[in-house]
Amino acid sequence: MAGSSWDLVPPDGDEAATLIGFLERNRANLRARCEGLDAAQLARTLPPSTMTLGGLLKHLAVVESGWLSEHFEDGPLVPPFDTAPWEEDTDWEWHSAADDTPEELFEVFDRSVGQSRRIVARALSADGPAGQSGLDARAARTVHDQERVTLRWILVHLIEEYAQHNGHADLLRESIDGRTGPGER
């Protein structure tokens, strides 16, 4: 389908291009499910869940930053996550999203995704962390105090995270206006 999120996935790409393509497709699908909604709609829940589309945008922004900025590069989370009161509220991104405007939610999501894209591009070039490059480059930090995972592992995990939450986004969007996804059936 021309102009669809499938255009982001090369049909004959190498491993890195395919992983990045599927990650980009999932990012685009989440964005499409949230676009055109006002603050009240982005904050609407589908009981008994307390999950919201705005919360999903903010959650996936911190997930991107956590895996790529923090774990992979050993850097800080992107703002506002770098100064969020995580000690007081471990689900701060979910709870605070209702206080954000749609513009703020998309801005933090886009900023985090932009930072992630730059990190991945560096890692796939000769300028990867600690002289490493490619999908086999290892994260600076360990995961669950075990091992330093590869960039490949992180990209697959991000695809998995988006895929799970895009299903939630479909249900939430459908409850708002009947729309289920970006219209690519």
TrEMBL record:
<dbReference type="InterPro" id="IPR007061">
    <property type="entry name" value="MST-like"/>
</dbReference>
<protein>
    <submittedName>
        <fullName>Uncharacterized protein DUF664</fullName>
    </submittedName>
</protein>
<dbReference type="Pfam" id="PF04978">
    <property type="entry name" value="MST"/>
</dbReference>
<dbReference type="InterPro" id="IPR034660">
    <property type="entry name" value="DinB/YfiT-like"/>
</dbReference>
